[in-house]
Amino acid sequence: MITDELRERVTGWFAGRLPAEWQPADVTVDREEITVVLTIADVETEGSDAAVAEARAGRASAFREDTREQRMEIAQEAQHRFERKVSWGLAIGERRELWTHVSAPVMTRLRQPQRVVLDTLVDAGVAKSRSEALAWCVRLVGQHEDDWLTELREAMSGVADVRAKGPAA
Which pLDDT tens digit goes with each residue over 87-143? Predict the structure, then answer.
């Protein structure tokens, strides 16, 4: 379980380690990975939505290449310190992209009604496989139940904090 203390330690470390011009960073921690999404200034260009989107893509690409060595150095330090992979992403205007990230396999057992849901998504072309369909379902729940999931995470973090204060097992 990821505790509030761990999140604060990781977020604090990155706040102190990242260059000032990369601040603030959005840092997310789970069991396998730390994802750091940097925010940079939006482009100042006029034109169509397509032109602005391409300008943002160009700035994101340039930033990625220009900062690669420095990001790799920081990631190695963090990976050693927190024993998790570090992944990077960027936000610029309305564009948000992840450059590297862990794709962790998850094993699950489903009964027929749940398999039918996945097979329907595959048959309809929404997903290429049951695995991709399940990932699609998880993303959809995450988008539509964000407030509830946030409340649940906070409650679980409180439980973990109380557990940590208890007697040693």
Answer: 999 999 989 999 988 887 888 899 998 999 999 999 999 999 999 999 999 988 888
Task: Say yes or no to pLDDT of 27 above 90.
Answer: yes
147-156 own/partner pairs: CB under 8 Å, 24+ apart: 156/1
- Cis peptide upstream of residue 105 (ω within 30 degrees of 0): no
H or E segment and range at residue 75:
helix 49-82
Binned at pLDDT 50, 70 and 90, residue 1 comes out as low
Opening angle at CA 168, ends 165 and 169, nearest 5: 125
How many Cα atoms within 13 Å fall on the side-chain side of residue 51?
5
The structure tokens listed for 55 are 């300008």
The pTM for the full model equals 0.71
Residues 155, 165: contact at Cβ < 8 Å? no
C-alpha to C-alpha distance for 102 and 86, rounded to whole angstroms? 9
Q: Annotate 123-136 with DSSP letters as a single string.
A: HTTS-SSHHHHHHH
The set of residues, in sequence order, having a beta carbon less than 8 Å from that of 75 and lying 6+ positions away, is 86, 88
